Amino acid sequence: MAAAYDQDTLFGLLAIDEVDRADCARLLERTDDAEQVAPVVAALRRSFGSFNQIPVDEPTQDPLVWLKAFFTLTPRVVAWSRRHDIPDRVIRDTLADVGRHLAISRRVTGEFGLQTWRWLTYHFTVRIFALGRLQFALERAAPATEVDGVIKAGDWVLAVHIPESGPLLPSLVDESLAAAKQFFAERFPQHPVSVVTCDSWMLDPFLLDRVAPESNVGSFVRRFTPIGHSSDGHTDALYFVFRTRDLSRLDELPRDTSLQRAVLERFELGETWQVTWGYLKL
Ligand SMILES: CC(C)(COP(=O)(O)OP(=O)(O)OC[C@H]1O[C@@H](n2cnc3c(N)ncnc32)[C@H](O)[C@@H]1OP(=O)(O)O)[C@@H](O)C(=O)NCCC(=O)NCCS
């Protein structure tokens, strides 16, 4: 195992906010969780570098046990990434999602926690990379996302994700897509990719009619060709726009922006937001 980092280095690398550092330090100092953490570390290591061909087992659903496992595995993630010539900037930008998601959890619940620990299993099995504004996960296409002449089940594709890190300017999206094309061809030529997929509530056609066509969101969504596959998104849209999944709070949520109004309108119509799939060619 790569050598552990000192606390400041670790917390700096994971971009953990000051307000979360004391709780993280306490978590690191705990020794009574070793028996729970070990199987989680083992589950992540089994899947490590397999780009999700080996799914991650979930020996527990305790978020802080997962967080402790992420801390434990950080040196290994960095060592693996350096061996694969991943630039330090990309490693840092990718791992900064830990601090970002601790901050989101605090905003949502008012306390220290990591509601989205499952999402961070991508980072700690080294299957996702932040390249500029967007994040890209290398993975095999599922049968449900086949498109004649474009995507076959089992093809390597890049699933794109949008972190909450400022406006989604088209120029930044262009730069990220260009960076992804070069990065994956150079670093992982054994897994050739030519298609980016997106599965998101943002691709639900309901949204496109309700945000300005020239908006960042509208321009992003229009880059994708529908794959013709979708599933119920339940409270996803609510969570991403309002950071709550509490349907009893709809009346009190703000309606200041077109995005907020669109999300609420769909619930008020008694409809379900769809997680819709689309693709674009790199
Ligand atoms: C996706 C995201 C980057 C878009 O931000 P953006 O570039 O500022 O969006 P736009 O400029 O196109 O905004 C279009 C409209 O939506 C509003 N809007 C954008 N993001 C918003 C948010 N998080 N909450 C409320 N309103 C938002 C804008 O104010 C604008 O409203 P208007 O038409 O009334 O002026 C931003 O919403 C975000 O960070 N979301 C969280 C991450 C996320 O949703 N990821 C996708 C997960 S599947």
CA-based shape: globular
What percentage of amino acids are in beta strands?
A: 5-15%
Distance between the termini: 36 Å
Whole-number count of domains: 2
Strands side by side in the biggest sheet = 1-2-3-4-6-5
CATH class of the largest domain: Alpha Beta
Broad structural category: alpha+beta
Gyration radius from CA atoms, angstroms = 19 Å
Q: Percent of residues in helical segments?
A: 40-55%
Rounded average pLDDT: 95
| Ligands, deduplicated | coenzyme A
Largest sheet: 6 strands, mixed
In DSSP terms, counting alpha (H) and pi (I) runs of 4 or more, how many helices? Answer: 10
Per DSSP E runs of 2 or more residues, the count of β-strands stands at 6
Give a verbal description of the structure:
The protein is of the alpha+beta class. The protein is globular, with a radius of gyration of 19 Å. It contains ten helices and six strands. The structure holds coenzyme A. Coenzyme A binds next to helix 8, helix 9 and helix 10.
